[in-house]
């Protein structure tokens, strides 16, 4: 809003497509909402009960500035045992979920530094870069290239001002995973041009074709990689707002200082929940992963049977980014029609960057029975017959 009391940087409305979807979902009584990546499964009761017990036993106070030491120890154990990576305690800072990105950017970006963001991207990235006073530079990726990064195109965007590249694999919104070749290509480019890789690794659980690969698995990348993790999706804990940053110790030290100014210390009970999530992960995660995997494969099969719609074989996450170019309509028009005619709420691909035009993002955050109902309604629409 333009007002003299408001900082001019915020005069332009920066609401994302996600914030308007709550209002759209209320338009009809029977809307099936496939627009938000908030898993329908609630946090496993083993996590919630143990966190509540800890709260009753006194974990209600400020914690260490880099996070609860027990949680940090569990994070190290998870990295060692789960991912085969050795992380030192000084390389960890617990964070308030997505705020991790802001901390990472603030710690590294000078005013006007450029940050490359592959598109289609998580809707918040460009504005997160701007919030940290950086300049987002968009790198398009394409379905016929499996949404992988083309290294020549990447290199053509690198200038004297380029400081970092943000990557996100498994990816929201495409549901794609980078191949090992892509990961190595990005790493080589980062080394060649002395860039930081900010690797948003919040969907590690949902990698369907091969085991999850972190940027930290690539040799020589630990010294220039900032990993962002969150418990939101991997443990269906979106409301607890907890995650962590893994980075070289000198970067973590700055992140700790910024975090201290913003939030002082992290929410104690949420950190206990994260601790219990990690401790119980081997029991909790496999059924969750199977549930979401079976939904995306079911939805992909239905999509590929409907005329004028197609989607790549699912590789990760619980999102599907399906192609609707044959309808001859824009993704906003199609998404709007799907809402009005089928009462199914999705998001237009254009919300995830210009190269998302021609696609619709669907979140498989309802059970197969609801997905079935959604597709039964969608396939009756004129544009899909
Ligand atoms: N990064 C990506 C790629 C996401 O898809 C999301 C949420 O959908 C987030 C970050 C933020 O997640 P949270 O703040 O819940 O950890």
Describe the overall structure:
It is a single chain. The chain is 39% helix and 14% strand. By secondary structure, the protein is of the alpha/beta class. It has 2 domains: 9-38 and 284-384, Alpha-Beta Complex (Aspartate Aminotransferase, domain 1), CATH 3.90.1150.10; 45-282, Aspartate Aminotransferase, domain 2, CATH 3.40.640.10. A 7-stranded mixed beta sheet has the order 2-8-7-6-5-3-4, with helices on both faces. Strands 9-12-11 form a 3-stranded antiparallel beta sheet. It has a two-stranded parallel sheet with strand order 1-10. Helix 7 (180-192) links the parallel strand 5 (162-168) and strand 6. The longest helix has 25 residues, at 281-305. It is globular and about 60 Å long. Pyridoxal-5'-phosphate binds at residues 37, 97-98, 122, 168, 172, 200, 202, 230, 232, 238, 243.
